[in-house]
Specification:
Largest sheet: 7 strands, mixed
CATH class of the domain at 11-254: Alpha Beta
Keywords: Kinase, Transferase
CATH superfamily of the domain at 11-254: ATPase, nucleotide binding domain
Bound molecules: adenosine-5'-diphosphate, ribulose-5-phosphate
Distance between the termini: 43 Å
Family: Belongs to the FGGY kinase family.
Radius of gyration: 22 Å
Pfam families: FGGY_C, FGGY_N
Oligomer: single chain
CATH topology of the domain at 11-254: Nucleotidyltransferase, domain 5
Strand content: 15-25%
Pathway: Carbohydrate metabolism; pentose and glucuronate interconversion
GO cellular component, one term: cytoplasm
């Protein structure tokens, strides 16, 4: 290139499918987020503990947000596309058409969501086998993983779903298939939710022992027998049909995907913290814990050697950062629990009216209300008499007990706005104490964690962040780019484009602020 001439900009698109909405971002070659769009997605709860979605609805939302973020951009400069998503189970027939995952036979609802707890009897039987693959999911399989859900479909929807099924995808892999026509699965989803081993592959004896020998018989063609590392480029890239849907050019690189929490982890865990006086500056990356807080919270810690932490998922090899083992702690409902407590309170209508009058979100209003009522004392002291046990949807980590329930102690007869604000605070504190409980379990097993890196919707709530810092006693680092999960998805697209050597070289996208 002749002197003074600027290299053309290169752009990457990241698409993040959360529980409640789909988001997209356009990111430039320095990792700066230039455009953002989001779109809600539909959810159904036909029975208690049954949670379903539609893969067609989700894909349509991906198309809406992608078209929005690339508006006004020369499409030739878009080099790569990456997806992340919740680890929900998508079911398609042999011609790739949606199949119903419900008794009603509604094939539009062909996704069993990650938080669906219908397969309790199945997961109990799986855990009774004490099979060796369970060592790599914290010792106990979660009802939120795929094996119990598959067994449920076989036992409950044999004719309408199981016998007709041709493809079972984790949602992140469904999206990369939809974009490219390539059915290869990401190592991330298969290792974390399907018992696949990065070193040994599938374990035939496990599937035979739990009654899903069908997969072994057809060489795992329905659940994936071609596995790629996250960020690997998928064959010929975007198909002409998907390009039309998404408003992009055919042939651009599409990456093997990540689960959403793992994209968030990738987006923040390697952040450049130099010059911020943080304890982790002189420490290895293994001293950092990425906490991705949305509907749920996921606690991602990495290590050079495998660490077995009872009740904490993993150790998973190369599932998030290549070459590192991952342990994934989690709280199944955090944002969802806060929303549940606040929206179910008698003073919620009053809160809505007052927040709207001040043009504030309900959470910004509650935070300022707590500041008002705390007077001279630290805000945390408002809850000396009120306590929440946050396992309203069971305990994912470290107790790994889906039967646990939530609890509130210290209730009075009054139900005014002060009570709502204090209940909200107690809920946030309970969630932060849950994070501390997980960190203690990880440290007892050999992790050495000094610093938390938060991202996800709840990291936009200063009270949530402050309580995590106060209760864990650790500094909490926030990326200057609040949409870190999307940065993680865009890292995948950038890696697939070949413009960067590996996902590790992109870790330093993003700068930090100390909380
Ligand atoms: N600005 C904010 N202040 C407080 N809470 C927020 C804010 N933005 C999002 N949240 C909360 O974060 C949760 C959703 O986070 P998000 O990362 O969007 O979830 P998901 O990826 O599961 O769809 C919700 O419970 C919501 O109430
Ligand atoms: O199981 C998980 C990751 O392993 C996540 O909790 C699940 O994917 C939902 O994520 P989110 O709270 O961001 O919607």
């Amino acid at each position: 290139m002749s002197g003074g001439e600027q290299k053309p900009e290169r752009y990457y698109v990241g698409v993040d499918v959360g529980t409640g909405s789909v988001r997209a971002a356009l990111v430039d070659q320095s990792g700066v987020l230039l455009a953002f769009a989001d779109q809600p997605i539909k959810k159904w709860e036909p029975q208690f503990n049954h949670h379903e979605q539609s893969s067609e609805d989700i894909w349509a939302a991906c198309c809406v947000v992608t078209k929005k973020v690339v508006q006004g951009i020369d499409l030739n400069q878009i080099r790569g596309l990456g997806f992340d998503a919740t680890c929900s189970l998508v079911v398609l027939d042999k011609q790739f058409r949606p199949l119903p995952v419900n008794q009603e036979g509604d094939s539009h609802r062909n996704v069993i969501m990650w938080l669906d707890h219908r397969a309790v009897s199945q997961v109990n039987r799986i855990n009774e086998t004490k099979h060796s693959v369970l060592q790599y999911v914290g010792g106990v399989m979660s009802v939120e993983m795929q094996a119990p859900k598959l067994l449920w479909l076989k036992e409950n929807l044999r004719e309408t779903c199981w016998d007709k099924a041709g493809h079972f995808f984790d949602l992140p892999d469904f999206l990369s298939w939809k974009a490219t026509g390539v059915t290869a699965r990401s190592l991330c989803s298969l290792v974390c939710k399907w018992t696949y081993s990065a070193e040994k592959g599938w374990d035939d004896s496990f599937w035979k022992m739990i009654g899903l020998e069908d997969f072994v018989a057809d060489n795992y063609s329905k659940i994936g027998n071609q596995v790629l590392p996250p960020g690997a480029s998928l064959e010929n890239g975007l198909t002409p049909e998907a390009a039309r849907d998404l408003g992009l050019l055919p042939g651009i690189a599409v990456a093997a995907s990540l689960i959403d929490a793992h994209a968030g982890g990738l987006g923040v865990i390697g952040a450049d913290v130099r010059g911020h006086g943080l304890i982790c500056e002189g420490q290895p990356v293994t001293s950092r814990l990425a906490v991705i807080c949305g509907t749920s919270s996921c606690h991602m810690g990495i290590s050079k050697d495998p660490i077995f932490v009872p009740g904490v998922w993993g150790p998973y090899f190369s599932a998030m950062v290549p070459g590192f083992w991952l342990n994934e702690g989690g709280q199944s409902v955090t944002g969802k629990l806060i929303d549940h407590m606040v929206q179910g309170h008698a003073a919620f209508p009053e809160l809505q009216v007052k927040a709207t009058a001040r043009c504030q979100s309900i959470y910004a209003y509650l935070n300022s209300h707590l500041d008002l009522i705390k007077k001279a004392q630290p805000v945390g002291f408002l809850t000396v008499d009120l306590h929440v046990w946050p396992d309203f949807h069971g305990n994912r980590s470290p107790l790994a007990d889906l039967t646990l329930k939530g609890m509130v102690t210290g209730l009075k007869l009054s139900q005014d706005l002060d009570d709502l604000a204090i209940l909200y605070l107690a809920t946030v504190q309970a969630i932060a104490l849950g994070t501390r409980f997980i960190i203690e379990a990880m440290e007892a097993a050999g992790h050495s964690i000094s610093t938390l890196f938060l991202c996800g919707g709840l990291s936009k709530n200063p009270l949530f962040v402050q309580m995590h810092a106060d209760i864990t006693g650790m500094p909490v680092v926030l990326s200057q780019e609040v949409e870190s999960v999307l940065v993680g998805a865009a890292i995948l697209g950038a890696c697939a484009s070949g413009d960067f050597a590996s996902v590790q070289t992109l870790h330093t996208w993003g700068f930090v602020e100390r909380f």
